[in-house]
Design a protein that fits this description.
The chain is mainly α and 498 residues long. It is built from 21 helices and 2 strands. The protein has one domain.
């Protein structure tokens, strides 16, 4: 077994082993359990970073897709299913983002355990969620992809229902019902592809393989709806604000930072890659819905009065830009989606950390009662301002590139529809600036209502600093993400005929 294969297995096995270990420790070992889980998350982050190889996919419609590292062994031989994992320039940034955010969340729980249950159990659940998300990004077998996609469901439900706010059970049930709807659609879509192609190997299916046009149209419709629920795409987004608002801080960070990316990643890897004719056929509809999400998300944010709910609805708009990039079916658009995913995970993760800290100190998330933050807690106000301007797409920060490239890709696609979508999306970006500036005016510059302490704990500084730094570094050096994604994005765009 090569070093790369060992790293692939370790990136999955370490959080799984950590979750099992923490769950089996005696009850009296509460803090020790959280420390053990944090160590497991740290080791998983280290192995994920070490996966970097620097090589992209082989470009070309007829060329085989070659990941940097791959494991391919028989899993269920009589059904021709394989335990097939791989990593490349599309999945690598998302894997590292997942392991980083999980590590930061585990570090955060060393001092900040929300009410509702043991912190040790919460850490174990976060590690279980990490296994499902990382496995989804690494899976190169459709059935294995489905299995990992579903692993996330129950642990995330437990996180929301066990450590959330007053309406946590309602939010958790809503999350599960929507997720189950997406799961059924995904399962049927996977069945259509596997039955039509005779294989579940994603690398062999890239480009459509032996699938007929009718099979691709049906499969893409089912898969796109399933991934739209997870992304979420308007109008299938209504589970998201409740889940974010009621989830504990670390749950919101994982939800926004990486769980939503499972939907957009699936749409790129499987929707576009495996069913390219279906993607080309549905692209205008996806583009229209994406721009609708941008505008609707921004307008709803302008009316929000609660901090976490506003940040939650902002994710609908930001995922709209990601989906618009995917809908263009171009290399530029796919790259826009990839860097948009990473930027959103970094920035919104930071914003939810900050929103949780402010809410814990003020005992409220109502904007009208959080005025005067600049006077009472200038450090928190400054960090919140930084996160907000990064999220609204200020040039020089990470949020700028995904939005700009998505608009450029839509205009480059040409045609009245796509140019119109690009213009409307750019208008949505202006609305994004409007609601974030409104939030800052009310929270930082409004009349003082609740005193908020500005003393930051060490776990808070450790958890927030890497995200603030990454928001700046990716904004200045977008090539860190775009460089490794160029070849695979070009390869995927090459298999589609818009």
């Amino acid at each position: 077994m090569s070093a790369g294969q060992v790293l692939l297995l370790a990136t999955l096995a370490l959080p799984a082993a950590g979750a099992l270990l923490v769950a089996l420790l005696p009850r009296r070992v509460e803090r020790g359990g959280r420390i053990a889980g944090t160590v497991a998350a740290g080791l998983a982050f280290a192995t994920s970073v070490a996966l970097y190889d620097g090589r992209g996919w082989v470009v070309g419609i007829d060329a085989p897709v070659q990941p940097w590292h791959r494991i391919q062994v028989d899993w269920v031989p009589w059904l021709h299913l394989q335990f097939h994992l791989g990593v490349d320039g599309i999945s690598y940034p998302l894997v590292v983002l997942t392991t980083l955010l999980t590590l930061l969340c585990c570090l955060y729980t060393l001092r900040h355990v929300p009410e509702g249950g043991r912190g040790r159990t919460l850490v174990a659940l976060l590690l279980a969620v990490e296994v499902g998300i990382v496995g989804t990004f690494l899976a190169l077998d459709l059935v294995l992809f489905f299995v990992f996609f579903e692993v996330v469901l129950l642990p995330m439900y437990a996180v929301i229902a066990g450590w959330g706010g007053q309406r946590r059970r309602h939010a958790a049930r809503k999350f599960v019902l929507y997720a189950l709807l997406g799961s059924v659609l995904l399962l049927v879509g996977v069945f259509v592809v596997v039955a039509g192609a005779g294989t579940a190997d994603i690398t062999a299916l890239t480009g459509g393989g032996p699938l007929s046009r009718t099979s691709q149209l049906v499969a893409f419709t089912l898969l796109a709806l399933a991934f739209a629920v997870k992304a979420p795409l308007w109008p299938l987004h209504t589970w998201l604000p409740d889940a974010h608002t009621e989830a504990p801080t670390v749950g919101s960070v994982i939800l926004a930072g990486v769980l939503l990316k499972m939907g957009t990643y699936g749409l790129i890897r499987i929707g576009v890659g495996v069913t390219p004719e279906g993607a080309a056929w549905a692209a205008p509809v996806v583009g229209v819905l994406a721009v609708a999400a941008i505008i609707v998300g921004a307008l709803v944010c302008l009316a929000q009065t609660e901090l976490k709910r506003l940040i939650a609805y902002s994710s609908v708009g930001h995922m709209g830009f990601v989906l618009l990039g995917i809908a263009t079916l171009s290399a530029v658009g796919i790259q826009a989606a990839l860097i948009g995913n990473i930027a959103h995970g970094v920035i919104t993760g930071l914003l939810f950390f900050l929103a949780g800290a402010i809410k814990d100190r003020a005992h409220t998330g109502e904007l009208a009662r959080l005025g005067g933050l600049r006077e009472h807690a200038p450090v928190l106000a400054g960090l919140l301002g930084f996160g907000a301007i990064a999220s609204l797409g200020l040039p020089g920060l990470a949020g700028f590139w995904g939005e700009m490239f998505a608009v450029v890709a839509a205009v480059q696609r040409s045609g009245a529809l796509w140019v119109t979508l690009g213009v409307v999306a750019a208008t949505g970006a202006a609305l994004t600036a409007a609601y974030f500036l409104r939030m800052l005016r009310r929270v930082s510059h409004g009349p003082a209502a609740v005193a908020v302490t500005d003393r930051l704990t060490r776990p808070e500084l450790v958890a927030w600093s890497p995200l603030a730094l990454l928001a700046l570094v990716i904004g200045v050096l977008p090539v860190l993400v775009l460089g490794m994604a160029y070849d695979p994005a070009s390869a995927l765009a090459g298999v589609v005929s818009p």
